[in-house]
Design brief:
The protein has two domains: about 5-175, Peroxisomal Thiolase, Chain A, domain 1 (3-Layer(aba) Sandwich); about 180-325, Thiolase/Chalcone synthase (Peroxisomal Thiolase, Chain A, domain 1, 3-Layer(aba) Sandwich). It is built from eleven helices and 13 strands. It has helices spanning about 20-25, 35-40, 55-70, 95-100, 115-130, 155, 205-210, 220-240, 260-270, 280-285, 290-300, and strands spanning about 5-15, 20, 45, 80, 105-110, 135-145, 160-170, 175-185, 195, 215-220, 250-255, 310-315, 320-325. A five-stranded mixed β-sheet has the order 1-7-6-4-5, sandwiched between helices. Strands 8-13-12-11 form a four-stranded mixed β-sheet, with helices on both faces. Strands 2-3 form a two-stranded antiparallel ribbon. It starts with 5 loop residues before the first strand and ends with a strand. The structure holds oxa(dethia)-CoA.
C-alpha cells in the first residue's frame, strides 16, 4: 500500500466584528499606539462578544469553510482543538464544536500547547490519518484570549486578540501535502508564561480571583529571547533538512506574537517581504489560531496556489515550538 500523505484540503476563518484599537487601549491603560506599534507591530485586535465562546468562533470558521469548500460535517471523523481558552475544562471544546456544526460522526479532543497548538494538532491529525483508520480530520485553532486577559495590565492586554482558523486534513491525491513537522518543548518556559489558577494546582477560589491568577501572565523579555532563537532555528532546520533554501519558499507563515520576531525569522531565512505572511497588525496574537488565520488570509489574498512550498513556525507557552513544511494543495 502506498504511503498516506496528509494535507490541508479546506480552510475557514472567523474573527469577531468588534475591533479594539491601540487608541482604544490608550484610554484603558498607560500605553501608547506608538509603543505598541513599534514593540509589537499590532495596531488592532478583534474581541468576541460576551456570549461567544471559543467553540462559537470555531463554528463560525467552519461555516466559512463550508461556504468556500462545501465540507459535509457528517463526513468528519475527528475534531482536534488546540486552544488555551476552552469553553470549559469539560466537556471538551471539540464536543461543543461537534454539537454546533453537526459533525455527528466525529470523535475529538482538545489539545494544550499554547501558541504552538496548531502545529502540535497538525502533527497529531497527520499521524491519525496515516493509520488509515480516518479520512477527514478537522483541526480548529480557536481562542477567546480576551476571556483570560487582564485589561488593567498593560504588559499583556495589548498583545492578544480573539479568532478562529479551521482546516480539514485529508490524504493527498497528488504530490502536494505535508512534507514534515518537527516539534519541541522545554519546561524552562513554565516560569515565564502561564495562567496560574483554575486548574488543580490552584483551583478557583476568592483568593485566586483577588490575585488575578485567572489571567495570562507573561514575562515578556525572556519569552522574546527564547522565541527568537528557537523559532528561527526551527525554521532554518526544517528548510535545510529538506535541502531547500529560503528562496524556494513561496510563503512563510509564522505564529504572530511580535512583528520583530517574525522579521528576525524572515531575515535569517533571507526572505523577501512578499514571502512572509504577517497579519499581526489587525488580529494581534490569537495563540493557536494565528497560523490557520494566516493561511486563510494568504489564500484570500491570492498569495497561495497549489504546489507552493510553505513553511510554518510557532513558539509559545511551555515552552513549545516547532516547524512544518508543506506543499499547498488547494
Ligand atoms: O505567543 C507566545 C509567545 N510570546 C511571545 O513571543 C512574546 C514575546 N515577547 C514580546 O513580544 C515582548 O517582550 C513584548 C512585546 C511583550 C514587550 O516588549 P519588550 O521590548 O520586551 O519590552 P519590555 O518587556 O522589556 O518592557 C519595556 C518597558 C518596561 O518599562 P521599564 O521597566 O523599562 O520602565 C515596561 O513596563 O515597556 C513597558 N511596557 C509598556 N509601556 C507602554 C510594557 N508594556 C507596555 C505597554 N505600553 N503596553
Amino acid at each position: 500500500m502506498s504511503k498516506i500523505v496528509p494535507t490541508i484540503t479546506a480552510i475557514g476563518k472567523y474573527v469577531p466584528e468588534k475591533i479594539l484599537t491601540n487608541k482604544d487601549l490608550e484610554k484603558i491603560v498607560d500605553t501608547t499606539d506608538e509603543w505598541i506599534t513599534t514593540r509589537t507591530g499590532i495596531k488592532e485586535r478583534r474581541i468576541a462578544t460576551a456570549d461567544q465562546a471559543s467553540s462559537d468562533l470555531a463554528a463560525e470558521a467552519f461555516k466559512d469553510m463550508q461556504a468556500k469548500f462545501g465540507v459535509d460535517p457528517k463526513s468528519i471523523d475527528c475534531i482536534v482543538v488546540p486552544t488555551v481558552t476552552p469553553d470549559m475544562f469539560f466537556p471538551s471544546t471539540a464536543a461543543l464544536i461537534q454539537k454546533k456544526i453537526g459533525a455527528v460522526n466525529a470523535w475529538g479532543f482538545d489539545l494544550s500547547a499554547a501558541c504552538s497548538g496548531f502545529l502540535y494538532a497538525l502533527e497529531v491529525a497527520s499521524n491519525l490519518l496515516q493509520t488509515g483508520k480516518y479520512k477527514k480530520i478537522l483541526v480548529a485553532g480557536a481562542e477567546k484570549m480576551s476571556s483570560i486577559t487582564d485589561y488593567t495590565d498593560r504588559n499583556t492586554c495589548v498583545l492578544f486578540g480573539d479568532g478562529a482558523g479551521i482546516v480539514l486534513i485529508e490524504p493527498t491525491t497528488d504530490d502536494t501535502g505535508i512534507i514534515d513537522i518537527d516539534l519541541k518543548m522545554d519546561s524552562i518556559g513554565t516560569e515565564f508564561l502561564y495562567m496560574k489558577a483554575g486548574g488543580s494546582a490552584n483551583p478557583a477560589s476568592h483568593e485566586t480571583v483577588d490575585k488575578k491568577w485567572h489571567y495570562v501572565y507573561q514575562d515578556g523579555r525572556p519569552v522574546y529571547k527564547y522565541a527568537v532563537s528557537r523559532m528561527v532555528q526551527a525554521g532554518v532546520d526544517m528548510v535545510e533538512k529538506h535541502h531547500y533554501t529560503g528562496q524556494d519558499l513561496k510563503l512563510f507563515v509564522p505564529h504572530q506574537a511580535n512583528q520583530r520576531i517574525i522579521e528576525a525569522c524572515a531575515n535569517r531565512l533571507n526572505l523577501r517581504d512578499d514571502q512572509v505572511l504577517s497579519n499581526i497588525h489587525k488580529y494581534a496574537n490569537t495563540t493557536a489560531a494565528t497560523i490557520p488565520l494566516g493561511l486563510a488570509d494568504a489564500l484570500e489574498e491570492g498569495r497561495l496556489k497549489k504546489g507552493d512550498l510553505v513553511l510554518l513556525t510557532a513558539f509559545g507557552g511551555g515552552f513549545t515550538w516547532g516547524a512544518a513544511l508543506l506543499r499547498w494543495s488547494i
